[in-house]
Write a structure and sequence with these properties.
mainly beta; 17 strands; 4% helix; 1 helix; single chain; 186 residues; 3-stranded mixed sheet
Length: 186
């Protein structure tokens, strides 16, 4: 799979980094990354992979790694209009097409690319959000409004977050105020 873009972020709200690549995968897309950070004083190392169709809809995902002394392995699959987590249907997030992994900014790329907003257009984009460290799927109400070629007004009211994200042509967020900043982008 040829890599379209790759990025390295530094976390701003606590110690941590995340590295991710975007590749073509057949007629769709693949995001693969690794995040290393501290969570509640415990070291975490998580790898993730999300496979999307041609329209940027996530179809499968996996998160695996370590959290403190615990080994994690979570598999997500889009089935019959909703998400299954490790084979168990998650009815409370039924119909939410976007999957947002709460420990990485990589998954913001999916609705940014999927929606293809023109400047000045805003839309709600609720997501099935993997809360971390709880590791459960929850509904996350969020809104994207494209300001121009590189900036999106982004709001996630549940977190009191309302900022302008700087976005690369690839769709990766390069500046996520207060949370993430880019160290390298290729």
């Amino acid at each position: 799979m040829p890599t379209i873009a790759s990025i390295l972020w530094r976390r701003l709200d606590q110690e941590g980094h995340d590295s991710c690549s975007l590749s073509r995968a057949g007629d769709g897309w693949s995001l693969k990354g690794q995040a290393a950070f501290l969570q509640e004083g415990a070291p975490c190392g998580l790898s993730y992979e999300i496979d999307c169709d041609a329209g940027w809809l996530a179809r499968t995902a996996r998160v695996a790694g370590l959290f403190g002394g615990d080994t994690l392995d979570y598999r997500f699959e889009w089935l019959d209009g909703g998400w299954a987590l490790n084979g168990k249907k998650q009815t409370h997030v039924a119909g939410l097409v976007d999957l947002d992994l709460g420990f990485t900014p990589a998954t913001n790329l999916l609705p940014i690319r999927r929606l293809g907003l023109r400047p000045g257009i805003a839309t709600p984009a609720p997501a099935a959000y993997l809360a971390f460290p709880e590791l459960k799927l929850e509904r996350l109400d969020q809104t994207y409004r494209r300001l121009d070629d590189t900036r999106y007004a982004y709001a996630a009211p549940a977190f009191g977050y309302d900022e302008v994200l700087e976005v690369a042509p690839s769709g990766f967020v390069v500046d996520y105020p207060g949370l993430w900043t880019t160290i390298a982008l290729r």
